Amino acid sequence: MHNVAFIINPFSAKKNYRPFLDALKKALSAPNFYISESLEGTADFIKQNFEKTDIFVAVGGDGTISSVAKSLINTGKILAIFPAGSGNGFSNENHFSKNLEELLAKIKDGKFREIDTFKVNEKLSINVSGTGFDGKVVKEFEKTSRGFANYIKVSLRTFFHYKPIEVKFKSEAFKKYDGKYLMLNIANTRQFGNNAYIAPHASTIDGLVDLVLVKKFPLMYGGVFAFRLFSKNLKENQYVTYLSVPEIEFSVNTRNWHLDGEYHEIASPVHVKVLPKSLKILI
Length: 283
Hints:
Blueprint: E1 4-8, H1 18-27, E2 32-35, H2 39-49, E3 55-60, H3 62-69, E4 78-83, H4 89-93, H5 100-109, E5 112-120, E6 123-125, E7 128-132, H6 133-141, H7 148-161, E8 165-169, E9 179-181, E10 183-187, E11 209-214, H8 219-230, E12 240-245, E13 247-252, E14 256-259, E15 262-265, E16 270-282
Helix pairs in contact: 6-7
């Protein structure tokens, strides 16, 4: 077994992390773990254990994974995941399951691959980030007890009164895409989570992100949009535009963003930049 440390978000998985921890203690003798109290605590734990640890395991959702990954970018250390969030988009895309035995077998093998990440105004993202409608949804969703059902309820409630955002690109090459949009997403992988595929052709190894521009559509198209979203079949049409870019800059008239499903306020201008092969991830 490689030198490994586990970072557990106690607020993920409906705050029920004890079964995982009990199983971990049965499987390993004196495992090195930290029950995270804050982002700062997570960073401190990684720093304190950095030299003696080969693999850091994030136990939580995409936000937890991102907080761990932030300390591992371009360091040679390996990220592993035990999914325990509400969406688990990044975990799904990188083939991590809620099977501890399977995870420990992967850790024993120690095989990894290098993947891209990206930054939004120097804030790291590993999966999908965005602004507009879904940024507002995440802000309201954080006021609930989470769960997929609550996400759908908040999404529907928000859709009816949400005013489109206005996006203006800096480069002349993209000026033709200036306009009003329901939402703007930046996708490093294909899905938000819960198997909702916002960018079916996105890849973590191509040095690009997919910028997804979605215009506000009539309610009657909502069912079609949702079906295509969950069937990996969303594609360009009069409402959806994809731009694959290594870097891009634009302004938007809102500060409501989500980075990997966690709410953030980000001021314009917004600079997005891919960090190619910047993170080692267990396979």
